[in-house]
Specification:
alpha+beta; six-stranded mixed β-sheet; 6 strands; globular
């Protein structure tokens, strides 16, 4: 591994810990503090479909996530893949979505610049049975 790869993994792991905490508790400040000012977020469906730009929009998105999963989400990390600038976390999550049982498989991709996350992309999809 190169020094850049090591830094990318270190920063992404720290951000993922904050991300996991935000999903569980609704407390997102630690994660938001790790985002660059020109941060972009790509989401595959719904109100935030497509490209979302800036930390304010990211804050809106993550507050919406917390409002949708009021009891929080628990995560089980299944796989991690990385290169010089990007780390992909594949995980299973579970909780209550608008008071209905929810579980899914998710992949989130963090692009790292320096000691911050500059891009986030999320992909998901499950029939709720293939957990």
């Amino acid at each position: 591994m190169t020094q850049n790869s090591d830094n990318t993994l270190k920063v992404a792991h720290q951000a993922f810990e904050h991300f996991q905490h935000g999903l569980a508790t609704g407390e997102w400040q630690g994660f938001l503090d790790m985002l660059t000012e020109d941060f972009t977020l790509w989401f595959p469906v719904g109100k935030f479909y497509g490209l979302n730009e800036g930390k304010d929009r990211a804050n809106e998105f993550f507050q919406y996530v917390s409002a949708s999963f009021q009891g929080g989400l628990s995560l089980t990390l299944d796989r991690l893949t990385s290169n010089e600038t990007t780390v992909v976390f594949e995980f299973r999550d579970e909780g209550m979505l608008f008071d209905q049982p929810y579980k899914n498989r998710i992949a989130v991709s963090f692009d790292v610049r320096g000691d911050k996350i500059c891009r986030y992309r999320e992909y998901f999809g499950s029939d709720g049975k293939s957990y």
